Amino acid sequence: QQPVQSPQAVILREGEDAVINCSSSKALYSVHWYRQKHGEAPVFLMILLKGGEQKGHEKISASFNEKKQQSSLYLTASQLSYSGTYFCGTELDDYKLSFGAGTTVTVRA
Amino acid sequence: DAGVIQSPRHEVTEMGQEVTLRCKPISGHDYLFWYRQTMMRGLELLIYFNNNVPIDDSGMPEDRFSAKMPNASFSTLKIQPSEPRDSAVYFCASRLNAEAFFGQGTRLTVV
Lengths: 109, 111
Hints:
The complex is a heterodimer.
Chain A: E1 4-6, E2 9-13, E3 18-23, E4 30-36, E5 43-49, E6 55-57, E7 60-65, E8 70-75, E9 84-91, E10 97-99, E11 103-108
Parallel strand pairs in A: 2-11
Antiparallel strand pairs in A: 1-3, 3-8, 4-5, 4-9, 6-7, 7-8, 9-10, 9-11
Chain B: E1 5-7, E2 10-13, E3 19-24, E4 31-38, E5 42-50, E6 53-56, E7 65-71, E8 74-79, E9 88-95, E10 100-102, E11 106-110
Parallel strand pairs in B: 2-11
Antiparallel strand pairs in B: 1-3, 3-8, 4-5, 4-9, 5-6, 7-8, 9-10, 9-11
């Protein structure tokens, strides 16, 4: 079952912040975040395991609330290079990695 | 390592024809995934393998779709017969630990 992401799209100016949310109806083992640039393959950003870890990649960080089966990706002081589609991937205990519909982020100068 | 290699990069075929997409995973990776990407549904998991064995094919849309992994270095996704609604970008990804590495995808257009 695919996780649910929100919002579907967000437009930012350089330097602004944004939050992307991901939720699942099932108990999760881990949450993955990937970013896809237009015409390219998705690229791994980070993984969060059970335990509420908060990890970071550049000025992009994420949290995982395992009680609520929710994860949030935080884009801080956004840069032009942050533009792309962000996918949340969820995993139960079976290595089955399922992705949501994605959130398109556009950062403008 | 050259990464995950998919072929062809682009495929245009007529409705009713058989289409075969190919994937070479990264050497040593024991998990292989096939995804389909569309605007409406994002990245849909079709099937995944562990050590060449199919684990879950519940995402395969219909009997027209089939996937095989005859050895650790090769997998195919076949659509027979193809239909216009199969038009999408198909990604293969392989994984050993946390990170899944995606190929560049095959853009399939069925006319």
